[in-house]
């Protein structure tokens, strides 16, 4: 009986059925990939097209042999390079300082017991949820009227080390540090909570001070988390527009960051230069892409161990 | 090296009393084991000695110096953690040297030398340049020990250091640790839930339950003269058998068994009156099993302290057999006694057997309080003492 019923099963049918299902999955996956990649592909193609080619071909179709040009990328680069440099000069120190401070804060809030800890932690948590819009006007008032740091630093500019216009990057950097510390602290806190408490206890019993425990144990073990948080925070700051606009204000200012410059590129009264805009957008995105590729392994490792 | 005095030590976490009024004096160079089931407060006690927890009440003194508010950094103790707490980013050498860096009396050269010496002692010299993740569990355990030994502290604290090892390695490390402690002669407080570890390693052991100290004493003292039913069942494997019954006419009487006490026992039960509830305790290894149609002392009778029982389960261990026994008319259906028989002896499940409970091996407990009323006699250096 059993054998007969086994023989009755249509094996070929199952194989066919599986194939149809698989095929369906592949089709859906392919459609999704196309959906997500189409804007990117259209962007890249538009960036290398001549004006005529842009007008005559669909955005996602390749240009003809005579419709290819590197001119857009060249122009975009010359217009954007100052902005990218400004952004890097601002974002790299802002990110590093944020991470160092936040990791120290998280260490103090997670691994050491002290009175009033919970209150401070709540302040950090509130800090995470303060919306950008709510702080724009206070920031403007603070950096221009209450504490005009850029103006105060002008004597430094007389030493000819920097142009006076660049000084506005300093308040912008500080703003980003202040705004970034709460969320990064929370990320580090999650990571430190998963670290065995016996590491800290063993070090205490071995006679180590709290500073030494941070420096010798916690900091070296935070490496994967530093990778994750660096990518996250750098991308945030580098791509940020609202604070740049509030503090630096003009796309043609000396200190204008990448996002400010980008907002003005290829737009004029005579119309929008799509090729130039697309080329500029790609150049602007390159640093973050490079960062992702360089740190991808650490990023994945940090996400696994950190639970961030 | 230091002696440790613990007085009325109490630790409360909010409403939970983790450690309740514990008093122990630990002598210089002594190997003391805190043992009890999980949640009994043994680890909390150890952590208070280490300074990782602050006592709610009571005192901890090293050589008469009050330690309560001294940070762990200033107590000169070394601790081996259950998870070893080896720093993954340092080599074995780095791990061992880490604690030594805070010892002011060493030059850098001496520190290096000291690490080499201890590595030699623990036979881990060839592992010094590896990282913890490259080591086996047993090797990690040695490194953790080495990190403690290197510092030459006043007190060693060990929190279940062997519990992550497999059974064979654990038995080996037990002996090794014990020899090491003897050699170094450093006061050691060792926490475990494993009574075998406690019995085999300790000079004296401290049995705790629910935060309360049950008994302090040498291992054999606790084995033969437990102060209460908790200690009696906790020490020894398999656990002591307990039979519920009452005291009637100078005998222990239960549903299935009438067990007359001889003079030695009744002398000890002067505070007990008729119909008081009692618990009769007998260790599995003290129960004698006789063939029903064998020798004369195997006859079942009350005077003979022998009863007819049937075998329900036989667990062969090789060197011995663990025999589960039940009274023939037992209503419960579960086993009433566990006995140990020689491994060479053949005993079948479902057979009938005569069980002799020797009066010189029984313990009597108060059923209400669990306190021991009478313990078996133990020969102490020629003197017979009785608790």
Q: What report would you give on this structure?
A:
Chain A has 308 residues and is an all-alpha fold. Chain A has 2 domains: 2-67, no CATH class; 71-306, Orthogonal Bundle (MetI-like fold). Helices cover 76% and strands 1% of the residues of chain A. Chain A has a two-stranded antiparallel sheet. In chain A, 32% of the residues are buried. Chain B has 387 residues and is α+β, with helices and mostly antiparallel strands. Chain B has 9 helices and 23 strands. Chain B has a 6-stranded mixed sheet with strand order 6-7-8-3-9-10, sandwiched between helices. In chain B, strands 13-12-11-14-20-21 form a 6-stranded antiparallel sheet. In chain B, β16 (306-316) and β17 form a beta hairpin. The longest helix of chain B has 18 residues, at 167-184. The radius of gyration of chain B is 25 Å and the shape is elongated. Chain A binds chain B through residues 196, 198-199, 201-209, 216-217, 220-221, and chain B through 50-52, 71-75, 77-79, 81-85, 87-89, 98-99, 102-103, 147, 151, 157.
The second-level CATH architecture of the largest domain in chain B is: 3-Layer(aba) Sandwich
CATH architecture of the largest domain in chain A: Orthogonal Bundle
Whole-number total of structural domains of chain A: 2
Give, in order, the helices and strands of chain A. HHHHHHHHHHHHHHEEH
> Tell me, what is the CATH class of the largest domain in chain A?
Mainly Alpha
How many E strands of chain B?
23
User: Per CATH, what is the topology of the largest domain in chain B?
Assistant: Rossmann fold
Largest sheet of chain B: 6 strands, mixed
User: Which strand order spans the largest sheet of chain B, edge to edge or round the barrel?
Assistant: 6-7-8-3-9-10
Strand content bin of chain A: under 5%
Distance between the termini of chain A: 57 Å
